[in-house]
Design a protein that fits this description.
By secondary structure, the chain is of the alpha/beta class. The chain folds into two domains: about 100 residues, Leucine Dehydrogenase, chain A, domain 1 (Rossmann fold), CATH 3.40.50.10860; about 200 residues, NAD(P)-binding Rossmann-like Domain (Rossmann fold, 3-Layer(aba) Sandwich), CATH 3.40.50. The chain has 14 helices and eleven strands. The two termini are about 30 Å apart. Nicotinamide-adenine-dinucleotide (NAD) binds next to α4 and α5.
Length: about 350
């Protein structure tokens, strides 16, 4: 396996390969950039096909965190960790303790939090081994998903305003892919605002719960792309916008929680060519990390959610910049983020 020549390497500051034979832990901690502060980012647990796939995911996700924190105006760099293993069968106290020791050994350069496959109970175990933790139940804000869902909700409203010239969601249809932590909260907000829902998940129980609670229409996982909707909200895993799905996509807006929604950067340009407005993933899904950044003894939920509401105007600025330059929104977002994390005076030593 190569690192420095890896297509996703992008000058990562540090990548740690973590192996603990006793617990069976195999993990990768990727730190992309430390210019704005320590690298804050979630830990994902997934049954990766192999180390290559896990490394690619860690590198892409950590880079995304640098851009996300910069555009959310947070004093953090970007990092992410992945644990190779099935979250349904491979969890143990020893495994998370070992992970916590690896995080501690990085001396605060990486701050761990939840992501797909990792919940508050897991973070609580990790917190017994390291203080560089966010989202633990003691002293933390707990599950950040309601914050993420709120950010996606205000982001959908910004996209609807820009693309459809509408100030509300009444009578519009949103196709939500993935009804996990974020997807479920998002569906509640959308239904509360008068939107109709078309939903899917590979977990039948998750679908039934949303259909029963909100009267959503369920479709099979493959059918979500071609759903007759105003917004496609990807809230499952990444890379769902690819050559195949882009051709069947009917919604004029893509705005959802998933990280790394574009299979490749060129798909941002392809969405633009087809007249689809894309709300860049790391901008619209920053609500969780914003909540986490407000963590502390004086946590004020109203203040944190007011900060998240700023995603609305950040997206409008990106949409306008993209239009003004003819660039895809994904590129306009990258340029704006880079202004904020590569700007003058931002160096690793200044942030230390
Ligand atoms: P989750 O694991 O709770 O939910 C994901 C859901 O997607 C699950 O119900 C799963 O069954 C479903 N799913 C997986 N593959 C699918 C497929 N092919 N088709 C349909 N459904 C499928 O995860 P989550 O915390 O809700 O996060 C969802 C996405 O948002 C992830 O990409 C995550 O990285 C991103 N995200 C989450 C947060 C957060 O606060 N939780 C913050 C930022 C970004």
């Amino acid at each position: 396996m190569t690192l420095f020549t890896h297509p996703e390497f992008d000058d990562h500051a540090e990548v740690a390969f973590c192996r603990d034979p006793e617990s069976g832990l195999r993990a990768i901690i990727a730190i992309h950039n430390l210019n704005r502060g320590p690298a804050l980012g979630g830990c994902r647990m997934w049954s990766y096909a192999g180390e290559e796939e896990a490394l690619t995911d860690a590198l892409r996700l950590s880079r995304g965190m640098t851009y996300k924190s910069a555009l959310a105006g947070l004093p953090y760099g970007g990092g992410k960790s992945v644990i190779i293993g099935d979250p349904k069968t491979a969890k143990s106290e020893e495994l998370f303790r070992a992970m916590g020791r690896f995080v501690e050994s990085l001396g605060g350069r990486y701050i761990i939090a939840e992501d797909v496959g990792i919940g508050v109970p897991d973070i609580d175990i990790i917190a017994q081994e390291t203080k560089h933790v966010s989202g633990a139940s003691a002293g933390g804000v707990g599950d950040p998903s309601p914050g993420t869902a709120y950010g996606v909700y205000v982001g959908i409203r910004a996209a609807v305003k820009y693309k459809l010239g509408r100030d509300d969601l009444k009578g519009l249809t949103v196709a939500v892919q993935g009804l996990g932590h974020v997807g479920r909260y998002l569906c509640r907000r959308l239904a509360g605002a008068g939107a109709a829902l078309i939903v899917t998940d590979i977990d039948r129980n998750a679908v039934d719960a949303v259909v029963d609670e909100l009267g959503a229409k369920a479709v099979a996982p493959e059918e979500i792309y071609g759903a007759d909707a105003d917004v496609y909200a990807p809230c499952a895993l990444g890379a769902t916008i690819d050559d195949r799905t882009i051709k069947v996509l009917r919604a004029p807006i893509v705005a959802g929680a998933a990280n790394n929604q574009l299979a490749e950067p060129r798909h941002g340009a392809e969405l633009l060519r087809r007249g689809v407005l894309y709300a860049p993933d790391y901008v619209i899904n920053a609500g969780g990390v914003i909540v986490i950044s407000h963590e502390g003894p004086r946590y004020d939920k109203a203040e944190a959610f007011a900060h998240i509401a700023g995603i609305h105007d950040t997206l409008l600025e990106i949409f306008r910049r993209a239009d003004a330059t003819g660039a895809p929104t994904s590129e306009a977002a990258d340029r704006l983020a880079e202004e904020r994390f590569k700007g003058p005076g931002l160096t690793a030593s200044a942030a230390a």
